[in-house]
Design brief:
The protein has twelve helices and no strands. It is an all-alpha fold and about 325 residues long. It is globular and about 65 Å long.
Length: about 325
Amino acid sequence: MARQTKAYLALIFICITWGTTYLAIRVGVLHYPAFLFAGIRQTIAGTILMIIALLINKKKDITRKNVLRQMLIGFLMITMGNGFVTWGEKYVTSGIAALICSMMPIFAVIFSLTSSKRDHFNALIGGGLILGVLGVGLIFKDSLSDFTNTSYLKGIVATLIATSSWALGSLTNKKNTHPTNSMFNSGMQLFFGGTFLLIGSPVVDTYKGLQIWQPDALLALLYLIVFGSVLAYTAYMFALSKLPVGIATIYAYINPLVAVILGYLILSEPLTIYTVFAFITIMFGVFMVNKGYRKQHRSEQKKSADKSITVLETADPN
């Protein structure tokens, strides 16, 4: 199977799996402190992933430069990204958190445009991103009155910070195109990100009334470790290495739909007709972003090919 096809299959897996993790996180933070819950999840998942990586491929890059790099990515994506989403879900529903995170491709494109001369907007990408935001706005429509709640606003701000940090971490990770052992690197990111969360937990969390034995929360933690971190994070890093950032991050448009539906079915969170309209709008947005990136890269490949032909013709002494 072609690597490009595998990358798209990995992306589909991410779209579904990470949509379910918002529900699992919501269940977890109803019983446990957010940073503690996320930190335990990620350090265990990172340890498991590093062990599996070494069993498959014993090569590893533990130079100071690479370790510091993985620590930075882990801090951006796991500590700030996953940690702040987890903390935010103490104050907002799983569906709302997922909706805010659906803005991540927008942050990724903005960061990419400001840091790379190759990437640029075209009409399809711009139109797709606008449709994506409009789709999110449709689902948000019934929650506007909650913006007067201070705790609700804290949850939104935390999730926005998480979303932008995840996007920045994704771009930072993508710059390393030739890793020695990408799976081991992913494990280090999870482990370091989780460790920073555990260090920050006593400052951010409150342990008052904490009860360790909570069957629902422990089951959610197990699911998040295996599916949300070990499997999905590995799939995301693979998709990110093979696909343009704008395509690899479109899972953020699908996740809210999965999260909202599961939140409605399991936690009785709101689900209205606007969800249907939002789904249609978001799907068109995803299609346009995908097509826009394909068009952009085909154009770049054609220019590169034409340039190569010109160079060859110029260099030919005959």
